[in-house]
Design brief:
Layout: E1 3-9, H1 14-32, E2 40-46, E3 52-53, E4 56-57
Parallel strand pairs: 1-2
Antiparallel strand pairs: 3-4
């Protein structure tokens, strides 16, 4: 069972997350030949204050 973990900064819409799940699933089916029913995708959202970029938080950088 292929499993993909996607870690992103919080703030995406439900529609965007749905699209990520669909596209990652399609890529795993194509790359591995696994049946779609066996694919698992987990999106983990990280608060902007917990994501560091170049020594600053994503929130401080306006991301």
């Amino acid at each position: 069972m292929p499993f993909a973990q996607v870690i992103m900064i919080e703030g995406r819409t439900e529609a965007q997350k749905r699209a990520v799940i669909e596209k990652v699933s399609n890529a795993l089916v194509e790359a591995t030949g696994a049946p779609r029913e066996a694919i698992r995708v987990w999106i983990q959202e990280v608060p902007k204050t917990n994501w560091g970029i170049a020594g600053q938080t994503a929130k401080d950088l306006g991301r």
